Amino acid sequence: MIAPDDIDTFRRDGAVCLRSAFSEEWLTKLRAGIDADMATPTENLTRHTKDPDAPGYYEDYWAWSKIPQFEDFVRNSPCSSLAAGLLGADSINLVMDN
Length: 98
Hints:
Elements: H1 4-13, H2 24-39, E1 46-47, E2 58-59, H3 68-76, H4 79-87
Antiparallel strand pairs: 1-2
């Protein structure tokens, strides 16, 4: 459930922090997916950080269909119901997964 105050904040500011919205199980699964993607990058993985000694900022897209942990998250986590609740929508469609 999303608190009415959080919905109001989202509608006012366009963003809201939902602490503890995902269980440790989901976070562990996402970390494993990130590790898998970094170990065997998809063809879409890009490192945007120019300085090779600096911590990297990476982007990947359409990885959800190639990394099993990401697909599980997209299909089975509370992600879509949280988004629908914030938007007041009956359904949510995945458009991009950067």
